[in-house]
Amino acid sequence: MTSDNQAINKRKKNNPLIEIVFNIIIPSVILMKFSGPEYLGSVAGLIVALIFPISYGIYDFIKAGSLNFISLLGFLSTLLTGGIALFELNVEWLAIKEAAIPAIIGFTVLMSGFFGKPLLAKLLLNSLLFKLDTIYDALDARGNTQSFKQKITNANYLLALTFVFSSTMNYILAKWIVTSPAGSVEFNEQLGEMTLLSYPVIAIPSMLMLIGIFVYVIKVLTKLTGMKFEDMVNAE
Questions:
Q1: Which of 88, 165, 226, 232 is the most buried if burial means most Cβ atoms within 10 Å?
Q2: CA 154 to chain centroid
Q3: pTM of whole model > 0.85?
Q4: Cα pseudo-dihedral 71, 73, 75, 79, rounded to 10
């Protein structure tokens, strides 16, 4: 067994359901139902709600042994949300923060394409998933290497557009739902509602876009290499 295949076996995949529960459902329920004065109160309710995504982020970091760029931004986003509420800043800052995080990621993706090192290729085309040497040899044999690079660059721009969508929708959702002053019970409740709605309104459409980009890349690979999908992936 190769070292890459050993890495695949050692790597434990995160359970999407657990991620949703810790990062969305539990914080939303606490903010919407238990941050009133008769329960935790606005400040304690917010702190308890934020403990769950922060704790999960720390757990994921310890388990993975590293923290990637996107995970780091997500962690900082959670801390900034808490800071805006605890320091009772203008709620406009929440909308700006919600839009800024995916905008930063999208800009990074876009710039990686301009510099000839598409981030999509680094994320998707790695030796843990694909037999890269076999794929590149097949591309070279057919004289399609340059064509493939151009297709990947185009797909990378599409990836950047998904973050533009996310940034825009985050801002609209925050402006639409969170209108009460930061630090108030109403702010916590609206923050919980926004967090809960962000999954079906933003996360799921973005995920479908990512799946579409993945399918596009696979079709490009099979066409330009002449290989079947099962022959390109690491089966073990």
A1: 232
A2: 20
A3: no
A4: 180
Contact 232, 130 (CB under 8 A): yes
Interaxial angle between packed helices 145-177 and 132-141, expressed in degrees from 0 to 180 and rounded to the nearest 10: 120
Amino acid making up residue 39: Y
d(CA 98, CA 218): 32
**Amino acid in position 169:** M
Q: Is residue 98 packed enough to be buried (19+ CB in 10 Å), middle (13-18) or exposed (0-12)?
A: buried
Whether 39 contacts 45, CB under 8 Å: yes
Q: Is 233 helix (H, G, I), strand (E, B) or coil?
A: strand
Query: Cα 72 from chain centroid?
Result: 10
Task: Determine the Cα–Cα distance for residues 227 and 208; give it in Å rounded to an integer.
Answer: 25
Q: In Å, what is the CA distance from 145 to each residue of 133, 138, 149, 213, 226? A: 13, 9, 6, 19, 13
Tell me how far apart the alpha carbons of residues 198 and 204 are, in angstroms, rounded to a whole number.
9
Measured in degrees and rounded to the nearest 5, phi and psi for residue 144 equal -110, 10
Among 215, 233, 214, which residue's Cα sits nearest to residue 123?
214
Measured distance CA(94)–CA(72) in Å, rounded: 18
Mean pLDDT confidence for 79-91:
84
Closest by CA to 32, choosing from 17, 159, 24, 51, is 24
